[in-house]
Amino acid sequence: MALFLDFPFHIDGRGRSAETDEDDHIRDMIMQVLFTDPGERVNRPDFGCGLKQLVFMPNSDALATATQFLVQGSLQRWLEAVIQVESVEVEAVDSELRVSLVYSKRSGGGLRREVFTPAGLV
What we know:
The protein is α+β, with helices and mostly antiparallel strands. Helices cover about 25% and strands about 25% of the residues.
């Protein structure tokens, strides 16, 4: 079983770099794409989706639709070799923007469903 460095980087209880399995590693990579603002990385200024900027925007159906296209395009661009994006649904629920992602790993396995909220990062 392959192990990967956990994100965010931290030291585990043994005093070593924390490790994680492939499924958690892929989820960590998705979070990095979704919540990194374009321009945040010096050597790759176009990396990211900027989802966390939406925390302070007025919630609406139009924002949800635009976010859906933004998320799907960013994931396909940056993680195309790792995952196959099956669907992205963005819902404006009360004051929360909820991103539901269904994807499959290119290395095999069934469909996975993850839900992300920008408010969870603040």
